[in-house]
Design goal:
The chain is α/β, with parallel strands linked by helices. The protein has one domain: Uracil-DNA glycosylase-like domain (Uracil-DNA Glycosylase, subunit E, 3-Layer(aba) Sandwich). The chain has a six-stranded mixed β-sheet with strand order 1-3-2-6-8-7, sandwiched between helices. A two-stranded antiparallel sheet has the order 4-5. Strand 7 and strand 8 form a beta hairpin. The longest helix has 18 residues. The chain starts with 19 loop residues before the first helix and ends with a helix. Pfam families: UDG. This is Type-4 uracil-DNA glycosylase. It comes from Nocardia fluminea.
Length: 206
């Protein structure tokens, strides 16, 4: 028996438009899951509207939630450094997240990141699908398990896919770890080197 999500999902909020700015504006009013209740704001994707490559992360973090832009916190800074190391200009890319609102628990004055639930990921999928349809990239790079499963299905594993791409109907999909995992690694230098190596291989022409 199929278990139905308690969330209505974002489908009813996604407008019929070919304008990313209009899509972003509509996403700001999304109540497709309960995450909007506590988040400061929706954090939609940003970047070149005709980017050849889209990078997808998990969800906004604390800094992104407050700032309203993706990948502006510590993980984003590490990603910027890695892109610079391999000679890729972030301005040529489109960056987004599988889930558009920050999920957290409040502990005193701190907001502690919580992994989004599968139902929340599914509820937010229409926004990600709409972004990919509008940008129409040649390459999609998934950063971490949540992003990878959002694009390739719940059984997809970063450990089996990292550093290589698979062909889908409309684009190639590659996977690597989320940059936040590099920041948490015991051997951060080695983890960063492996992350950069993954990106180098993923950005190679298919």
């Amino acid at each position: 028996m199929t278990t139905r999500s308690k969330y209505p999902g974002a489908a009813d909020y996604v407008p019929r438009t070919h304008d990313l700015d209009a899509m972003r504006d509509a996403a700001g009013r999304c109540h497709g899951c309960d995450l909007y209740r506590d988040a400061t704001q929706t954090v939609f994707g940003e970047g070149s509207p005709d980017a050849g490559t889209v990078l997808i992360g998990e969800q906004p973090g604390n800094d992104e939630d407050l700032d309203g832009h993706p990948f502006v916190g510590p993980a984003g800074h590490l990603l910027d450094r890695a892109l610079d190391d391999i000679g890729v200009d972030r301005a040529t890319l489109y960056l987004t997240n599988a889930v558009k609102h920050f999920r957290f628990v409040q502990r005193g004055k701190r907001r502690i990141h919580q992994q989004p639930r599968r139902t929340e990921i599914v509820a937010c999928t229409p926004w990600l699908t709409a972004e990919l349809d509008l940008v129409a990239p040649e390459l999609v790079i998934c950063l971490g398990a949540i992003a990878t499963q959002s694009v390739l299905g719940a059984k997809a594993k970063v450990t089996e896919l990292r550093g290589r791409t698979v062909e889908l109907e409309h684009f190639r999909v590659g996977a690597t770890v989320h940059p936040s995992s590099v920041l948490r690694a015991t051997d951060r230098k080695q983890a960063y080197a492996e992350f950069v190596d993954d990106l180098t291989r993923l950005f190679e022409p298919g």
